[in-house]
Each structure stands twice: as C-alpha cells, then as structure tokens.
Amino acid sequence: MVESILKGEVMLATADDIPNWMKLVDVVKENFPGLQKESYLVTLRKNIARKTALCFKENGNIVGILLFSPNQNRLSCVAVHPDYRRLGIASKLIEKMLVLLQPNREITVTTFREGDEKGVAPRKLYKKFGFEEAELLTEFGYPVQRFVLRPDNLDCILGVKHSEVKLVPYSELYNLLFAHESKKIAEALGDNVFQIYHVGSTAIVGAIAKPLLDISVCVRDINAIDVHAMKTLGYECMGEYGIPGRCYFVKRKNEDISTHHVHCFTDGNENLTNQLLFREYLNTHPEAVREYNKLKLSLFEKYPKERHKYTECKTDFIMNIVQLAQKGR
User: Fold this and answer.
1) Is the CB of residue 75 less than 8 Å from the CB of residue 101?
2) What burial class does residue 272 get, using C-beta atoms within 10 Å of its C-beta: 0-12 exposed, 13-18 middle, 19+ buried?
3) Is residue 5's pLDDT more than 80?
C-alpha cells in the first residue's frame, strides 16, 4: 500500500514563521505539560537562529513543527495540527531532523509513558524509526519515558515481504542508510572493492519505491568476493540469480522480509552501466520520475502480491530510459 504523498514540504523555520508557529502551539498545548509560552518563545527564537526549528507547511500554513538539539542529539518536541494527523507529517519532520543530525550517535526523545492515552501515537511513531524504550522519568511534574535511537536501528524503516509489493514516498533517509551500509560493505570486501553505488528507486529523488536498498558494488575480481565477510553482515549469497556476471546478496529480517539487495559486478558490466544510466537520467528528468511513479502505482493495483510480475512489467519503461540515456551521453 502506498503511504500518503503530501503536497507540502518540510523547511527550516524563519522569524517570519513565529506567529503561525505559535498559533499551532496554542492548538496542541495540552500535549506539552509544563508549557510556558514566554520561555517557549525564547527557545523557539534560539532554535530558529541555530537552524534547528523545522516546520511543515501546507498551502502556506504551518501544520507541523519540530525542534531539535544537535549538541544533545535530542528531539526536543514535535507536534502536528489535529486536522492534519495520520498523513505522515510527523514522519517527514523526523526524517529531515535525522538527515540534519547525521545519526552516528544515539538520539534521544522523551514522550508519554505506556498506558497514557496521549502517548499512543508518539510511541508508535518513534518505534517506527527504531527508537527503543529507555528509563522512566518525570518532566515538569509529569511522568514520561525516554526513548533512544541507536545508529544501527535506523534501518528498521526498511523491509518488504519477498512476494509482495509495498510502495512508500521518497525519503532523504535512504541516502543516509546507503552511506552507513556501504561503509560496512567496503570494510567487509576490502581491496576488492573499486566503487559502491546507490541504485534503484531509493536513489532517485521523488520516486516512490519499495522500502529496501539496492546497492551495486563494482569489484576488481568477481571470483574473489569474500562471501563469508558478507555473511557476517547478515547477507545471503544468491549467486548470479539470473543475471550473468553478477554475484547477488540479500539481507533479510524475520526470514521473509528483504531489506537490502547487493549486486556485485566487475567494471564495464552492462547491467551495472544500465543501473547507473537509469539512475542518472531520472535524477535529471523529474517528468520521467512522475511517469515512472504512475506506472508503479498502476502495477501495484494489479499485482500487490506478485512481486515478480510487478517487476517484469517495468522492464520496457526501464529499457526505454536506458536507451534515452545512452543517446544523451
């Protein structure tokens, strides 16, 4: 199923946004125990100056807000207007924060405790991003709980059942996850690695995609790949898996949910070249991305439980784009 695709966008708040921001704070103030508007306003101005205040605007109106602290690596507060909840706005705000924080160390947030009605939605949201429950605390006289996001937990946003199709909007987090995983792959495969590329739809800005990472590794010797080292990272070697000259690896969780696909090729392999041509063409032709998205949605409606058929029916479009890219070289 495709998650909500919003027209608005996340941006850094400016001083001009303060009146609109504070209107939203008035609407949601019951969710902020101990809130004192005067001190909050001082904090907001400081965050705007430090570029750590994010807002989501829909039709020019602020409908979502988030403050964070890079020094403490902490999500300070997040809120969405009641009329705009369950549309993915809080997720978009958190995604942007994570990109700006570059989460190579623990990130923390406090929220309502389990059993508190106000905590149902935020606790579910934080767990979606890999935050884990930590110690119980009291803030401003109110019982809360600390949640912690550890660097290796962020890839919990990835995962699709082998036989199913799941499509989600583009996320900047994919580049962050690629950087994290490619570093581990480079260390595992050592000097045999020539270059590592982020490919597939998660590497295309604006493309809806299955939430799994496709990574291509250009190696010096396809026969010298350290399969054992990849296994220690959680990958299963699938051999060529229908594509001559490839060594293919899959990482899964819960046995049937794929999170990462790694394609190893030697330099000059046609499949690797085509992957890169397709990625670069779509990243410079947004109209082609929109066309690709429409195709994916139509195929998803036809084949939600038939991944093979869904993939097969994209072939003509992909080869068309590759040919256009070749002509433009």
Assistant:
1) no
2) buried
3) no
Tokens of 199: 């490919």
- Tell me the average pLDDT across 243-263: 95
Q: What is the DSSP letter of 199?
A: E
pLDDT given at position 8: 84
Give the predicted TM-score (pTM) of the model: 0.88
DSSP alpha helices (H): ranges in the chain? 18-28, 37-50, 89-101, 120-128, 173-189, 227-232, 270-283, 286-302, 307-312, 315-327
Domains of the chain (ranges, CATH numbers): 9-153 (3.40.630.30), 158-327 (3.30.460.10)
Per-state percent for the chain, helix, strand, coil, to nearest 5: 45, 25, 30
Strand partners, 239: 248
Q: How far apart are CA 162 and CA 326, in angstroms?
A: 32
